[in-house]
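Quick look at the format.
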Amino acid sequence: MPRSNHLLIIDPQNDFCDLPPAYLPADPLTGIPCAPALPVAGAHADMLRLARFIDATASVLTSITVTLDSHHRLDIAHPTFWSTGDGQPVAPFTPITAAQVRAGAFRPRHVDDLPRTLSYLDELEARGRYTLMVWPVHCEIGTWGHNVHADVRAAYSRWEDERQFIVRKVPKGTNPWTEHYSALMAEVPDADDPRSQLNRGLLDSLDRAELILIAGEAGSHCVKATVEHLAEHLPGRDLSRLVLLTDCMSPVAGFADAQAAFQQRVRDLGVQQRTSVDMARALLAA
């Protein structure tokens, strides 16, 4: 029986790609070209390599899943949620801790949100994975930035047409009260929101594959968080089934060390790491 190969593409969206001018349409209201909100250096080239990988391996890919970072404009990790203690805007790329909020350095714009905000920050910090980061408003649902990179979308559409299988789309991040880097679960799951809890349907789908090929953006955050959760929750914990396509992901600026440390850590756990060209050759030769 042929091997089952599942390609998991993490957040291949316009807002994360350092797109060249030819990829930037004009805003119909202003005439100004759209601009990615949180471009990752190297992501456009990553997505071009990923598109070529999909085309090259279409005949042996049995499943493709695409995750979509999907946020509201008002979100606990966006500047729209926060102000400084004296009422000034909070700039993107500002980390915020529970201690700073308790000291009055930062506060939610709605004063009634303070108790829930502190509860979230306390739980987030207790888990020890991340400090809350205020990112630029990004991947806002319904915007151009939320859309998939054009070459990747075209490649997986060709795969759908050829193989007559549906590319599964998995949104994440719609709960504005918790960060949601991982494709599998939010950083602090909301007991009242199943969308933020462990996505057992996705986990089961991935578990049915002999190989799980992983690419996307960013290697320092959403790819990293997803693989960490796979290492924790994948039935059987056979991490040799996971393959990182190393030339199809890049880190957020300033977080290259986080990506490098993550890659070394999961390599020690048995996760394979291959370039897209090498992996395509291996798949086609199998």
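Next, a different chain entirely:
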Amino acid sequence: MMELNSLRQFLVVARLEHLSRAADELRLAQPSLSRTIARLESELGTPLFDRGGRLRLNESGRIFRDHVERALGELDAGRRAVAEAGGEGVGVVRLASETFLTLSGPLAAYKRAHPAVEIALHWSPPEDMARRLRAQEVDLCVASQPIPAEGLESVALFEEPVGVGTPLGHPLAGRTSVTVDELADEPFVTAREGHWLRRLLERLFAARGLTPRIVCETDEHSAIADLISAGLGIGLAPAIARLSATQAPVAWIPVDSPDCRRTVTLHWGAQNHLPAAARLMRTVISGWDWGADSTA
């Protein structure tokens, strides 16, 4: 009989594909975790991982992982639904995004209207969002780049051009537009790997057989404009960033490429039972006047 703890431990190993790191995250002894995985494989009658060198989830493991995620997600959703039906608590909504600066306006409005609701924010890379929604680890996701749509529903929030920011004294600062080829030798300040801004930069350059010269990458996305203004380099910036009252003084130049844009989209699981708190947040975010927002 499979135990819930064993299934949860399997999901961690499947995600990390590394026994010692999984054991550290779970705060278990590695031999104990190895025995748990071995028992699952014995019960299923097939290996779940390839062990030739590095641990890798095999096809059977991927199939089992998908079913386990859905099963545990449904169990958690059932608990939340029972609590909601019984009137226990005031509700929790779990929102994942690549950045929360863009969402500060609707989040503040939601909290003012529903002060007793607990909002749990989770940073998530886009490649992990679909899995987390299908597993019901989160209720809603906001992505600035495409994510797999199977099993999801979505609504586009807004689309905007992404330009390049330069220091005010930069030779490009007076231009009305600039091509990607003209940016090839420029030093770039950008976000860490996986962030939509970094991925867009890499896609634009790769399409032309180029590699961006990155001189600074930061987790503090709000600091990018300050670093550009200080003369450390140039960097991509969404149009909405220019509306920020606290924006550092930089020149913003449109990029002459139809691909230099982002579409911000709200996603949720097509089969998920959204709690009332999450349904309310979906309404607030999807109905927000993004043109009047002043966040970046």
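The CA atoms of residues 38 and 47 lie 8 Å apart.

See the schema section for token definitions.
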